[in-house]
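Page 37, continued from 36.
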């Protein structure tokens, strides 16, 4: 290969061996590879770009007779890396915002409200407290640590000496039960 870069055509090479020609030939199949694995159109474009960027950086080492396999190997490695990083993010317990409490029908008290609003909130808080007392102790403790003390999943897991997955499960089950109990009251 000539030292003029990936688009240079060296002695004995035809125009279709340039990086640009390979890009044109394989852009759609690589993009389809990602979209077929459940990525959005934008994600597929980004991952396809990443594939060709890596191919461009390794252009000097690539063997022309294996270009399709080489490109799809790069794409498969990128795909595995994305799955691995998503799994890691999930394992490290990306926090759900406390605002998701509203999905359960629970609103956190607002101390700045006028006296009438505070009275209504007090009644609502009493109703919520009654619902929370119906939760199993471990579930109630997880819920309390998360939404009253604003602890992160990892901190709750450490405090209760349980796994992060258990914390997530307890909180999910608590939200479902609270929703059912509140719906039953109305």
């Amino acid at each position: 290969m000539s030292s003029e870069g990936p688009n240079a055509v060296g002695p004995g090479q035809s125009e279709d061996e340039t990086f640009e020609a390979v890009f044109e030939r394989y852009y759609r199949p690589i993009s389809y590879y990602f979209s077929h694995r459940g990525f959005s159109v934008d994600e597929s474009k980004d991952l396809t770009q990443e594939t060709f960027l890596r191919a461009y950086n390794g252009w000097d080492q690539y063997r022309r007779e294996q270009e399709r396999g080489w490109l799809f190997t790069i794409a498969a490695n990128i795909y595995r890396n994305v799955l691995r990083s998503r799994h890691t993010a999930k394992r490290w317990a990306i926090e759900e915002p406390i605002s998701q409490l509203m999905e359960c029908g629970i609103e956190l008290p607002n101390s700045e409200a006028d006296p009438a609003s505070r009275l209504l909130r007090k009644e609502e808080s009493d109703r919520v407290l009654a619902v929370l007392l119906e939760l199993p102790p471990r579930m109630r403790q997880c819920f309390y640590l998360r939404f009253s003390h604003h602890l992160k999943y990892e901190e709750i897991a450490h405090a209760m000496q349980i796994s992060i997955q258990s914390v997530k499960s307890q909180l999910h089950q608590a939200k479902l039960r609270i929703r059912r109990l509140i719906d039953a009251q109305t």
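Residues 98-185 form a domain with the Arc Repressor Mutant, subunit A fold (CATH 1.10.10.10). Flag for discussion at group meeting. The chain has seven helices and no strands.
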